[in-house]
Specification:
This protein has 433 residues and is α+β, with helices and mostly antiparallel strands. Helix content is 27%, strand content 28%. Among the domains are: 97 residues, Rossmann fold (3-Layer(aba) Sandwich); 63 residues, Dna Ligase, domain 1 (2-Layer Sandwich), CATH 3.30.1490. Helix 3 runs antiparallel to helix 4, helix 4 packs across helix 5 and helix 6 packs antiparallel against helix 7. The protein starts with a strand and ends in a 10-residue tail after the last helix.
C-alpha cells in the first residue's frame, strides 16, 4: 500500500515507521521548518505533498492520505480531496469546527441531549472579566484554536481574572469560552469512524496532562495515558455514539475522541479531539491486533464493522526533553542529544517504544523537532498498575540527556477513580465490549 502523511511536525512518526516495517511505501510532508529533523533519515520526506497525489492515485484503493492535525483549514482540504476520489483518513471541516470552536461543539452536544456545563463564548477579555465578577464561581477558560487553557482553583474566579489580565495575546484576534468547573473523574471515549459508522470497539482513556506527578505544574499536550478497549460500549452509547449521524453527514473519516467529566450528577462533555490523539494513537497500538494498514484499509473501503483488540489496559508514558512543555524558538534549547537504549532490549520490548521527535544524525539516533516530545513507551497488563509498571520499567532502560517523565500515570485511576466509575454505572458488563 501507499501512504502520504500530511502535517506540521510529523506527529505520526511512530505510525509511519510501523507502516514501513509492514512493507508499505510511505512519504511524509512536514510543514514546520523546526520539525524537519524529525524522523530524518528514517522516512521519505516530500517538499510539496500536492506533487505526490498522482503517486497516491496510482495505488487506487490501496493509496491512502493521512492528515495529522486540524490546522490551516485542513478539514476542508480533506473534504475536497475525498470529492476528488482520494482515500483520506483524518477528519473533516466539521471536525475542525468541533475541535476549534468550543462553543459550537457544546451547542451540538446539547442538541443531542447531553448535559452541558454552563458555558459562554467571548472575543474580548474585558467582557469576560466583567462576566466573572458578576457570576463569581470556579471557572475554566479555554481558547479556541490555541493551546492556552487555565483551570481556575478559586471559588470566586479571582485567579481566572488574574490569568486573563496577565496572559499575552493568543494571536491577532481571540475567541474563547468560560466553562463552569465540575468536580469529578476526567474520562474520554474515542473511536474510529469510517464515513458512515463507528468501528467497534471504542476505547476508554484517562489522560494525564499536568507536567509533574500529583497533577501539578503546567498543562501540557500530554504526559501519559491509560486506555482500554474493554467495557466501553455503554459509555460510547451515552456520549460519542450520539454523534454518528452528524459525522456521517459531514463526511468525517478518522479517529475522534470526546473528553468528559463524570460525577454523581451526570456526564459532562468537555471537548472533542477530531484527529489522531498524541500520544493516544501510540498507546492504543499494543492493544490493536490489526496492523495499522489493515485498519485504515477497512475504514476507507468500509469492509468491516469491528476489529480485534487485546484485553486489559495499556499505559503510555511520554518521555520529554527540553524545551518541553514549551517550544523552540521561545526557549533556546539545542536538539541533537543522543538517544541510547539498553542493548539487551528484546524485539517485543522495542515494539513498545514509539518514536516522537527523534531523527538520524550521522547514523546516530538523536532528539529533534520543536517541542521536546521525544518518544512514548507503553506497557500492557490485566490491571492499570501492571501496565504502568511495565511502561516505567522500559522507560528506565532508555537513556537521553535531561529526559523527564511522570512515573505516576494511572495512580489515581487505580486508587479511587475506577471504583467511582463503576459505582456510577458507566461501564458495560464484564466480558462485554
Amino acid at each position: 500500500m501507499r501512504f502520504l502523511g500530511i502535517g506540521d511536525s510529523c506527529d505520526l512518526g511512530a505510525l509511519y515507521l510501523r507502516l514501513i516495517a509492514e512493507g508499505h511505501e510511505v512519504k511524509v510532508h512536514v510543514s514546520k521548518a523546526l520539525c524537519h529533523g524529525t524522523l530524518a533519515g528514517m522516512v521519505e520526506r516530500v517538499e510539496d505533498w500536492r506533487n505526490e497525489l498522482e503517486w497516491v492515485r496510482k495505488a487506487k484503493d490501496e493509496g491512502i492520505i493521512l492528515f495529522e492535525n486540524v490546522e490551516e483549514k485542513r478539514g476542508a482540504l480533506q473534504d475536497e480531496l475525498r470529492g476528488d476520489g482520494f482515500n483520506v483518513v483524518g477528519g473533516s471541516s466539521f471536525g475542525d469546527r468541533l475541535e476549534n470552536d468550543r462553543g459550537f461543539a457544546q451547542a451540538v452536544l446539547a442538541d443531542l441531549g447531553l448535559s452541558i456545563l454552563p458555558v459562554k463564548s467571548f472575543d474580548r477579555r474585558s467582557e469576560a472579566i466583567e462576566y466573572i465578577k458578576a457570576h463569581p464561581r470556579r471557572w475554566v477558560i479555554k481558547f479556541n484554536s490555541a493551546a492556552a487553557t487555565f483551570i481556575g482553583q478559586l471559588p470566586q474566579g479571582d485567579d481566572v481574572v488574574a490569568y486573563l489580565e496577565a496572559l499575552p495575546a493568543q494571536g491577532t484576534s481571540e475567541s474563547f469560552i468560560l466553562m463552569e468547573h465540575a468536580e469529578g473523574v476526567e474520562m474520554g471515549i474515542g473511536a474510529y469512524f469510517n464515513g458512515e459508522k463507528f468501528l467497534t470497539p471504542s476505547c476508554l482513556d484517562w489522560e494525564h496532562k499536568r507536567f509533574f506527578p500529583g497533577d501539578l505544574g503546567e498543562l501540557t499536550g500530554q504526559m501519559g495515558d491509560i486506555v482500554t478497549y474493554e467495557r466501553s460500549s455503554r459509555f460510547h452509547e451515552l456520549t460519542l455514539g450520539r454523534m454518528q449521524e452528524q459525522l456521517r453527514q459531514s463526511g468525517y473519516l478518522g479517529y475522534i475522541n470526546l473528553n468528559t467529566i463524570v460525577n454523581e450528577d451526570g456526564v459532562w462533555p468537555l471537548e472533542f479531539t477530531c484527529r489522531f490523539g498524541y500520544p493516544g494513537f501510540a498507546v492504543l497500538d499494543p492493544l490493536q491486533q490489526l496492523p495499522w494498514s489493515e485498519l485504515f484499509h477497512m475504514m476507507v473501503a468500509r469492509t468491516g464493522k469491528t476489529f480485534p483488540t487485546r484485553s486489559g489496559f495499556a499505559a503510555g508514558v511520554v518521555l520529554t526533553t527540553p524545551p518541553f512543555p514549551y517550544s523552540r524558538p521561545d526557549v533556546q534549547i539545542p536538539v541533537g542529544m543522543p538517544v541510547l537504549f539498553d542493548k539487551s532490549l528484546s524485539e517485543e520490548e522495542r515494539r513498545h517504544i514509539h518514536y516522537g521527535e527523534v531523527g538520524l544524525e550521522n547514523g546516530r539516533l538523536v532528539t529533534s523537532g520543536a517541542y521536546g516530545w521525544t518518544m512514548v513507551v507503553t506497557g500492557v497488563g490485566p490491571s492499570v498498575l501492571t501496565a504502568r509498571d511495565r511502561a516505567n520499567k522500559l522507560a528506565r532502560r532508555i537513556h537521553i540527556p535531561n529526559v523527564r517523565y511522570r512515573r505516576d500515570i494511572g495512580e489515581r485511576l487505580h486508587a479511587s477513580d475506577w471504583a467511582r466509575i463503576e459505582r456510577l454505572g458507566l461501564l458495560s458488563a464484564i466480558n462485554s465490549s
